[in-house]
Amino acid sequence: MTMRAAPTLYIYLAAAIAALAGLLFGFDTGIISGALLFIEKDFVVSTGMKELIVSSVLFGAMFGSLASGRLTDRFGRRRLMLIISGLFITGTLIAALAQSVASILFGRIFIGFAIGIGSYTAPLYIAEIAPANLRGGLVSLNQLAITLGILFSFIINFVFTNIDGSWRWMFGIGLFPALLLSIGMLFLPESPRWLVMQKQLDKATSILKSLRNHPDVTNEINEIQQSLQIKQAGFRDIFSPWIVPVLFLGAMLGFIQQVTGINTIIYYAPTIFQLAGFEDASSSILATIGIGVVNVLSTIFAVIYLDKIGRRPLLLVGLAGMGLSLVGLSFAFQSGAEASALRLMAMACTFTYIICFAFSLGAILWLVVSEIFPLEVRATAMGVAVFSCWLWNFVVSSTFLTLLNALGPSTTFMSYALMCLGSLAFCYYKVPETKGVTLEQIEDNIRRGLPLRYIGQPVFDKTTVTATPEYQAD
Ligand code: BGC
């Protein structure tokens, strides 16, 4: 009896340690919203420079995500996680001790590189050590860790507000999770799947035995070996005609997650709240903590209900809600309402926006990109989708303040609302429901050339499919 309980606990612990990379992702991207208000007190920084400080992490992350496919195969998942914890520690020290804006930028690019690799490697490592029946929940743990990291950063921003050189402390606290990650990873095993890839069968078998707490893991080792028979495709193969539609879908989801404006709120919330009339930095940072709390709570809702309600309904309702909240925010800034009314409206709209994002696009992007790609191109294609997410994050975050200055808050938020509308239409026509269907069935549907919207169909049934006009056209 205890044979089941023990490995489950061990696996949860291992997933939680690996998810510290997600926590650092959230922490190091979220901390800038508060730190920015104090960096500009110590250095002379133009709007363009502020945008650069925010987006330097994203710039690093773009390159980290591009390199991650190769690096995970070369160094192994565990060793790479140890390397990125070292990068986190080095980058944090450089940024926290910086004597110039250039050093802050340099440290933040370093951290970004680690975040980019971690955003790919942590879910991969978790998925590879988890038993199949726990995999979905454990992978979503990573998104939960991201939102917890963001909340933690907002709290730290608030706590250190009135301390001299506060931004140094804000950055520096990131050392603790980074150290925890490096110590924790020392005690975790290498991924058995990677060991099998390296032909280290004995080691893989003994690790799997201890992970499953079972003396016989022959079946699982055989399954891994079989799945590795499929040749891992290279970069060029992801452009084969049958893959291109799903690749496009993954890249579009990364695009949509970012151009609908999430990080204008996550990274710049205190700035927005100050615009809406919150007088001092600390009260706007306090309002931002509220954002962090609802982000976590709504993500927990997503983790529980994604497999029950399904991806599509949550995605469509979420996008509609995000769009409406942005329209509300735009009107609030346009109405010339009294300071207190404006504050209240701005708060209400940003809160509903975050709730709607977290139960939809927040969790769904990472989940769907881990589901839709056929095994032979999964690593490379996932890398492309993750890269697209970081690229568009970079574009949006590095232009937000400029847009705000040029167009004013009302028009700026209205343009993100329009992005939500376009995204809603795209998702309605193109995003499949992947709830409860095996990855093999999805792959089979893609091979048969089903339109994107239908690749999550549980069983390939000619009668249902012929009824769909898109399929007939094919
Ligand atoms: C996104 C991040 C965002 C976070 C907010 C993640 O899924 O990729 O860009 O900051 O959600 O919770």
Description:
This protein is mainly α. Helix content is 79%, strand content 0%. The model is unreliable at 1-5 and 465-474 (pLDDT under 50). Beta-D-glucopyranose binds at residues 29, 143, 146-147, 150, 257, 262-263, 266, 295, 362, 365, 389, 393.
Instruction: Determine the structural class based on helices, strands and strand pairing.
Output: mainly alpha
Residues in helix, %? over 70%
- Low-pLDDT segments, ≥5 res: 1-5, 465-474
Give the SSE string.
HHHHHHHHHHHHHHHHHHHHHH
Describe the global form: globular
User: What is the first-to-last residue Cα distance?
Assistant: 53 Å
Mean pLDDT: 88
Q: What is the number of helical segments per DSSP (H or I, 4+ residues)?
A: 22
- How is the biggest beta sheet arranged? none
| Oligomer state of the chains in this structure | single chain
Bound molecules: beta-D-glucopyranose
Number of strands: 0
Quote the beta fraction.
under 5%
Rg calc: 22 Å
